[in-house]
Amino acid sequence: MNSTPTGTARFLPERVRAADTAHLWHPYAAVPGAERPYVVTGAGGTRLSLWSEEGTYHVVDGMSSWWSAIHGYRHPVLDAAVRGQVDSYSHVMFGGLTHGPAAELAETLVALTPEPLEHVFLADSGSVSVEVAMKMCLQYHRSTGSPGRRRFLTWRGGYHGDTFHAMSVCDPSGGMHSLWGDVLPAQVHAPEPPAGFDTEPDPLYVDAFERLAAEHAGELAAIIVEPVVQGAGGMRFHHPGYLRELRRIADAYGLLLVFDEIATGFGRTGELFAADHAGVAPDVMCLGKALTGGYLTLAATLCTGRVARGIAGGEVPVLAHGPTFMGNPLACATALASVELLTRGDWRGDVARIEAGLREGLAPAERLPGVREVRVLGAVGVVELEAPVRMGEATRAAVEAGVWLRPFRDHVYAMPPYVCGPEDVAVIAAGMVAAARASLGEGPR
Ligand code: PMP
């Protein structure tokens, strides 16, 4: 799948640079930005072609475009799915209309996700699917006679998106809260559970979490967490046993349980969904990112029949949400193709191979002074430093080593496309080690 990347002659890199600098916002950035982003001139298989004033680079993508491009770039099956749908219809409104790609996708997602999840809301981004999940929970309680249950219980260190309700359940020590604390809805933030996929649940932690749930029970609508892997909030792993405790606590105090599987869904942690590590079913589940194999923007909020019936029985029996691009046929057709490609292939073997390759390739980082921890789970590898990553140095070192990485805070991390072969994974791991060294002020070795 390492086809040669192609570019588009129209978009000359120098002109892209000028227009970008003049006009474009980038994620979490200022305009005009101090950072000069690499210009993408092509992508194919596991590779990206990048241009900067210093040169052109053909790099292995260690980021899957933020957890999404699990099948790599320009995959013939996904390309064909997009083209095929363009030949039928690209977009139609979803109010009063429905179509094959959305209906079949819903059926497929319900079949793959934990048993009681039955209904699917097709949102247009992960953050919106979290808003919808939170709205579902609030509306459920309103409709079933508990309108006072308006708050959410989460644990610290999470990330759920950049819209306001999603921000309110992100880590309260992060930038979101320091900037917006005075306008965010006040939620209940428990401490983070002890980290480590293999670290058995701490009964003292579980007791403290339960006490918080009991104390606030009358005002809580739901518990919301990222299961097993906290992604953009700190790349921390947790024992799946905590999910079983959350299920028990939610049931004991009348709370709904929401799993945000936007980053972890579709095999990333070694199970199809992170909830599967624990055999636990949430009441509401958010999916996104890898849903379309990274081709188009689509997310989904699934809920149980109980939640849907609760909402339907209320004074306002409808879920008041309906984005213009809800159920976009191009995105749904591509998602369907991507999910089928994944589930018909050996994704479990691919992810296990990447996990083994990352473990082996990242071993040298464990011995670097200034490295706090190296951890790997499924197709996620993390080198956590003791100090914030020096972004410019780290990114440049990775690109020079032939890898695209986007470190954040204290973390150099990768979540490669599943189509990466052993050589690609070795290159990614070596690039991560080079990035960590560069950030720590060491020259290449
Ligand atoms: N939840 C989780 C767990 C995420 O990782 C992200 C994206 N990083 C989001 C929600 C928000 O998704 P989006 O960026 O598509 O709005």
From TrEMBL:
The record marks Y28 as: Participates in the substrate recognition with KAPA and in a stacking interaction with the adenine ring of SAM. It comes from the Bacteria. GO terms for biological process: biotin biosynthetic process. One of its GO terms (molecular function) is adenosylmethionine-8-amino-7-oxononanoate transaminase activity. Homodimer. PROSITE patterns: AA_TRANSFER_CLASS_3 (PS00600). Its EC number is 2.6.1.62. The keyword Cell cycle does not apply. This is Adenosylmethionine-8-amino-7-oxononanoate aminotransferase. It is found in: Cytoplasm. Belongs to the class-III pyridoxal-phosphate-dependent aminotransferase family. BioA subfamily. Pyridoxal 5'-phosphate binds at G126, S127, D260, P323, T324. Its cofactor is pyridoxal 5'-phosphate.
